[in-house]
Design goal:
globular; 23 helices; 545 residues; mainly alpha
Length: 545
């Protein structure tokens, strides 16, 4: 029997699934560097980038809207309407999937001509069939969330990534073993997304059949009047779609921000940087940017994803009760957690980018790109978190409007900077986008409640960030020099490990020594984080925290 998940349990399930999916996504990128050359990597990443953008546009905020509509109908005792909403959502997902898959397959040659990424047509066409199922899967996930069965969506996401990783890499090994070359190898890895969609759909169908039997069993026990309510509904489809799109469009726009930036960079990279790189150099830099930098830079925002999933219902609940003091406390707390935990992860990966890149990939080439994009991820984290706070304040249109402004600045600055700075110009444009959206979000939040993130401790906090960064950079340089005669991977491992210890250790010591984080701060954090910080910081305070 399927049981409903509590709010806390449901949030934990979705957050855990997001963490696992992100890490599995990173591990899909690592083999690319070992299996394919720059052209093959660029071809796969071109297909994957446009696929993810189309998927986000088609499904970004719609599952959340469906979830709210379904849960509301069941709470009001109108399950018949809920089933009609679900049917309408599935119809929308089916039509959208067919249109997107067909368009991606047919227009693949045109996209290759626009992007100038060689041999990308086959990869684009290989990944296109995945779009047939994923919009339907997204609708099903929204329905199950509305029924408070979070495990269905979480398990399906994990299954999707596992099959995508194993299937894609396995097929590529076979194709490359036959000597078909990088063009077909990249397409084989892209086809892994199709296998992932089949696996995710199978999981959702298993849950749907089980829930259907459960509903039928409950219907047998109900009266004739209750059965009539369960089965019948004349809610117009036009009304359903109007409600879905009205509540989902702002979420779609904000959800597509990062994917749009990557899509823009991927599509126009060769054209915008043609005065800076020759064709061979551009292909190699593009491969490093999309395989190495985007993969590693995706690690720090994992925290923001988990926080976003957990903070929206908390702030929304307090806001609905007009408890603005609690809204202020929770909003300030989540931004404080981001500063204390998310930012240091991005800082460490930035400082140790040379060692981390060399350890994970075939060489440390492109580590400068990794460092710069990962540093920009700091502001991506603050953007995502502040977006979530505004959603909790029931103001979804504000982050949408701010996103449009940020994307406009991204386009203008990239067109201006890429011809003279190459890939770094594109990264600067993305960072400007994140910073502007964050600043606009913070200003909007402060109109509702005054955020108190660090108060007068900002200077001390910056010291606690800058000193470990400089020390970590020196430690990495020194260890690499001392281990120069070692095997490359061992040298990178040693340098990365020492840098992590130096940066992490100094950061914690300075947070405590400069009183940036106090026992009172620790007591306000969520249980698991509070326990970890208690253990680490207790020696630095006279009284146990």
């Amino acid at each position: 029997m399927l049981k409903k998940d509590s709010l806390i349990k449901g949030t934990l399930i979705l957050a855990a699934a997001a963490l696992i999916v992100r890490f599995l996504g990173l591990f899909q990128r690592i083999p690319l560097d070992y299996m394919l050359g720059p052209a093959g990597q660029a071809a796969f990443n071109s297909a994957n980038t446009i696929y993810l953008l189309l998927l986000t546009i088609a499904t970004g905020g719609i599952p959340l809207s469906i979830s709210r509509m379904i849960s509301t109908r069941y709470a009001l005792g109108r399950p018949g309407e809920a089933k009609r909403i679900y049917k309408a959502a599935l119809m929308f997902g089916t039509v959208t999937g067919v249109l997107l898959a067909t368009a991606m397959f047919v227009f693949a040659p045109a996209y290759e001509r626009i992007s100038k990424v060689p041999d990308s047509v086959l990869s684009l066409q290989a990944i296109a069939p995945a779009l047939l199922l994923f919009p339907i899967i997204a609708m099903m996930r929204g329905y199950f969330q509305g029924r408070q069965i979070m495990s269905a969506g979480g398990i399906s996401q994990i299954m999707e990534q596992i099959l995508r990783l194993i299937g894609g890499i396995g097929l590529a090994l076979i194709v490359l073993g036959w000597g078909w070359g990088d063009k077909y190898g990249a397409a084989a890895i892209a086809f892994g997304s199709v296998l992932g969609s089949i696996g995710a759909f199978s999981v959702m169908m298993w849950f749907w059949r089980k829930l259907k039997k459960q509903d039928q069993a409950e219907a047998v026990k109900s009266s004739a009047i209750e059965q009539d309510k369960l089965q019948s509904s004349n809610l117009p489809y036009r009304t359903i779609y109007k409600e879905i799109f009205r509540t989902s469009i702002p979420a779609v726009v904000t959800a597509m921000t990062v994917q749009f930036l990557y899509f823009f960079d991927m599509t126009l990279f060769m054209r915008l940087t043609q005065s800076f790189y020759n064709e061979n150099s551009a292909t190699r830099v593009l491969a490093d940017y999309t395989t190495k930098a985007m993969g590693i830079a995706g690690i720090p925002p994992i925290l923001a994803i988990a926080l976003g999933a957990s903070i929206i219902p908390v702030i929304s609940s307090a806001f609905s009760l007009n408890n603005m003091k609690e809204v202020q406390r929770q909003s300030s707390l989540v931004m404080r957690i981001v500063c204390f935990t998310g930012v240091p992860v991005a800082l460490l990966l930035t400082v140790a980018s040379y060692s981390v890149t060399g350890l994970l990939f075939t060489s440390p080439g492109g580590s400068g790109t990794v460092a710069m994009l990962t540093a920009g991820a700091i502001f991506q984290i603050t953007m995502m978190t502040s977006n979530s706070i505004l959603y909790g304040l029931n103001q979804p249109k504000l982050p949408m409007n701010h996103t449009f402004i940020g994307l406009g600045l991204k386009v203008v600055s990239s067109i201006a900077l890429a011809p003279v700075l190459g890939v770094y110009g594109l990264i600067i444009g993305s960072t400007i986008c994140f910073i502007v959206i964050t600043m606009l979000n913070i200003r909007a939040i402060n109109k509702e409640v005054k955020l108190n993130v660090l108060g007068s401790k900002w200077v001390a906090y910056m010291v606690a960030i800058a000193v470990p960064a400089l020390a970590g950079w020196g430690a990495e340089y020194g260890v690499l020099a001392l281990t120069d005669a070692w095997a490359n991977k061992l040298s990178y491992l040693a340098a990365g490990a020492v840098t992590s210890i130096v940066v992490g250790g100094l950061y914690i010591v300075l947070l405590a020594a400069l009183r940036v984080i106090t026992p009172e701060d620790v007591r306000s954090f969520p249980g698991p984080l509070r326990k970890v910080l208690n253990l680490i910081l207790k020696p630095f305070y006279r009284k146990a925290v």
